[in-house]
Amino acid sequence: MERLHSLVENRTVYSLDGFELNVFETHQAAHRVQLRLDGLALTTMLRGKKVMHLPGRAAFDYLPGESVVVDKDELMEIDFPDACLCQPTQCLAVAIAPDTIRHTVDLLNERYPRAEAHQPWTLQQPEYAHLTNTPELTDTLGRLVAVSRTTDANKDVLASFTLQELLVRLMQTQARQLIFHDYARYLTTHRFAAVVDYIKQHLAENLSIDKLSAVACMSKATFFRVFKREFGITPVEFIIRERLGEAKRLLRHPLASVAEVCMRAGFNNISYFQALFKKYEGVTPGAYKKQMVAV
Q: What is the mean pLDDT of residues 108-134?
């Protein structure tokens, strides 16, 4: 097995109060490279591809736009199948002090508890350690890197606030993966799983906050507030993203028109649908459809 220091041509380290930020760049293909980080760490792929081998789970591809939460002193074994000098693999790793994590988790559980008391805030969720980054998590990571690199005399204070936000965003991302993607497992134990199921079953219909809050057995104001706190987005934002995901699926069908997709995905106004699609996807529904047909 190979050691990391012989393969990482460039490792940049920023040590601040409560955490250490590492930027790794690997310049040659390698297999089963061993790495441990001090403290629980959030790693994020920036460029290239890794294959991760973590204890107790099958190997998996690790790609840009994804993160992996690694426990303190957990041994990672990493393959770099495509790394080369002209196309290095880049990864970010934020090793976080236990006291920093404990303070943030305790604060959330005390002042901002989750919807279900039997599922408190925590980062220790091995089955949800491999994550697709949300826009909010990506944005916070970018700001943490920026503040770590600055020469501002107050950088430790600024970094502390940003790190706390990062931990919150990370737990919200895990909560999304738990409920948004694995909701069927929790229909009888988590009220928001029932809400997600209802939304998916009635996506093309009118989905009012009154109805969704009733499914959650909450007042409308409490439902809206706790949903956003738990997942980092509002119920309305979640519905929009689900409808856009359904629209993308329908647009792949060669015979489906944009107007038909608009209605079937739950958008009653084609101009509004086109504007939202362009905002989130960067292209119009018609252009997206042409891209899919061309592929």
A: 87
Rounded Cα–Cα distance for residues 155 and 221 (Å): 37
CA dist 123 and 108 (Å) reads 12
Q: Judge whether 89 and 82 are in contact, CB under 8 Å.
A: yes
pLDDT band with cut points at 50, 70 and 90 for residue 293: confident
pLDDT tens digits, 273-291 = 999 999 999 999 999 999 8
**What is the Cα–Cα distance from 123 to 146, expressed in whole angstroms?**
24
CA–CA distance from 121 to each of 160, 230, 262 (Å)? 19, 9, 37
Nearest to 93 by CA among 41, 19, 25, 140: 41
State which amino acid sits at residue 177.
Q
pTM, entire model: 0.85
Which residues, in sequence order, are CB contacts of 288 under 8 Å at separation 6+? 248, 251, 277, 281
φ, ψ for residue 265, nearest 5 deg: -90, 0
